[in-house]
Amino acid sequence: MATEHEELILLDFWPSMYGLRVRIALAEKGIPYEYREEDLIRGKSQLLLDMNPTHKKTPVLIHNGRPICESGIIVEYIDNVWNDKAPLFPYDSYAKARAKFWADFIDKKLYQTGRKLYTTKGEEHEASRNEFMQCLKLLEEELGDKPYFGGESFGYLDVSLIPFYSWFQAYETYGNFNFEHECTKLIAWAKRCIHNKESVSNTIPDLSKVFAFVQKEFALFDIKNT
Amino acid sequence: MATEHEELILLDFWPSMYGLRVRIALAEKGIPYEYREEDLIRGKSQLLLDMNPTHKKTPVLIHNGRPICESGIIVEYIDNVWNDKAPLFPYDSYAKARAKFWADFIDKKLYQTGRKLYTTKGEEHEASRNEFMQCLKLLEEELGDKPYFGGESFGYLDVSLIPFYSWFQAYETYGNFNFEHECTKLIAWAKRCIHNKESVSNTIPDLSKVFAFVQKEFALFDIKNT
Fold first, then answer.
1. Per residue in B55-100, pLDDT tens?
2. CA B52, A155, A170: angle at the middle one, nearest 5?
3. Phi then psi for A5, rounded to 5 degrees?
4. Alpha carbon A82 to chain centroid distance?
5. What is the pLDDT of residues A161-208, one digit of tens each?
6. CATH number where B59 lies
7. B116 and B33 in a common domain
8. Is B101's CB within 8 Å of A68's CB?
9. Does A68 sit within 8 Å of B77, measured CB to CB?
10. Claim to verify: residue A98 and residue A186 sit in the same structural domain
11. Which chain B residues touch A68 with a CB distance below 8 Å?
12. Do B24 and B74 contact (CB within 8 A), yes or no?
């Protein structure tokens, strides 16, 4: 449990699905913090370079002067330190391992395949379309008939995946998908999160704003840095 | 805490540094299990395909019929379930996040760069040599003057890194390094682990055996599957 008088700073970049995970976790716990936007396109702050010298990436959570990096690790840290409210992990070790497995799958497969939707053409694009849809189908299977990935309550895997919903207009357009028809369950889940969880609705950027960002800024921006 | 009469099966591949993490964690906890060698070169077992349909990779720990995949997640699961002996994580949330950050760094950087030492030539090889040494230097810095990455006790980051030592003869040869001279602290740490921890000395394969494997089998083997 954290003590009072915390100094909490988040270095982030608004369209980042990884940063959004941290913003949602902090909102779930009701933790106040200072948000500092990083301009990853035009130049990173000295503070970011000092706080994450290894990867030089956002998000970085600075808690009383000490940096925590990598979104999954940050969300788990938040859950450990502020453990008096809205637990993100189940008590059961197997369910915990399973949530981590799928969050890892999102990082390794969904993110990488999603990028290819707007960075490849021809056969490679077609392959990435199929792979992306397969990823979503596997995630739908994992969701099953539960309201949330965390079961009755919004948990770690929900926090890990819901930020990607803000990129869905971009994915849909570049991948020529119709998610409403092709992934009914997943879209219903995303809308449930937005409808029921203020931590999501108050935090997640508008899909069209993210789409406009992808369209306008993509050429300038090395997406690897998001 | 686990109950008695567990059924515990590990699907693994002997030179895999990821599988070795699991074998070391199980040995640290003194947990008996059935080891099943997978022949990743000539064909994967149906059990592996059934237990890890998403990635089709070893290691997989099957605990009372339920699969746990991805080495870091498995080691953490083992630590959660068998929590009565040899804790692998510190109690402090920041130290825990830090151990996870560096284990993630090993997966993302050290492993990938290490592969390039024997899969690239020319400028790319030279760049990977420099990057590999930089990775080791960062890890040495993280170790500092502590006997283990876990401080006074052997912990999660030690478990995550020590398996790579079994590949050091291969890395050294293909990268033209002299680790004894270039990474004195890290080599001293590796020897300390082997000398003091039976979980390591009884588990880790001989460096020359791994080197012979890399030499002989590499052409046949898609290393991505390790």
1. 999 999 999 999 999 999 999 999 999 999 999 999 999 999 999 9
2. 80
3. 55, 45
4. 20
5. 999 999 999 999 999 999 999 999 999 999 999 999 999 999 999 999
6. 3.40.30.10
7. no
8. yes
9. no
10. yes
11. 94, 97, 101
12. no
